[in-house]
Amino acid sequence: MQHSFSAELAQEYGLLEAVIINHLAYWVEHNRANGKSYYDGAHWTFNSISAFAEIFPYATENQLRRAIKKLKDEGVIRTGVFNKVAYDRTTWYTFTADFIESHPFIWQKTQIEVCKNTNRSVQKHKPIPISKQDNKQNNKVSVETQSVYDRFIEGFEKNPNQCKLTDKRRKLIERRLKDCGQEMVEQAIDKVASDPFYRGENDRGWTATLEFILKSYEQVERLSQLQPRKPKESETDDFDWSAKLIANENRRGY
Fold first, then answer.
1. The CATH number of domain 7-116 is 1.10.10.10
2. Cα–Cα separations (whole angstroms), residue 229 to 15, 20, 153, 176
3. Start-end of CATH 1.10.10.10 domains in the chain
């Protein structure tokens, strides 16, 4: 696969950023030409970070995240979520009006490429489809339960097709909502998701699960009060407590 970029954009934003701009511009124009993916006054394209990593194998997922954040921060692109189910967090991308106006040469080149590749395959990643099973399950899920589940999926960047909201997980969330309240539960998830230790940066490569976070009222209460971890904190009581919890969870098979 050949990837191209504008030397002018590479000088302005960076090499990887220029490649991403070229890729997004192609698909936005492709969808515009086909009258597809029109939301909020613009045509969009979508992809997950993992799909981008397959398209651009020379870049890591972290490099791609940083590049996309840079493009967003500098007003090149804007993002949205236009998926048909609430738990699908696939991100959609389009360009800002200011960027389109200041870089007309991109669209002239892209229109030619789209005309040459009218039968080109669709995006690498597709939004999560709605299944009859999902619809049946969602009928039983309260707004609060769905919110907690979405919070975990988004915070830990999980694929909801692989980390499904099973009946067992739904009941666990409902129990913690009942005895902890939604605010404390979501605060615990946010605190854990923002701590590198619980995201796999530990000597076991262990990552916190939803079951781990919602194990008990006491667990949720303590995790909701986590403080940002300082460098070389391995000798603190909090680290020791975390290590013991991991060992316990491993023995329980979570």
1. yes
2. 34, 34, 22, 25
3. 7-116
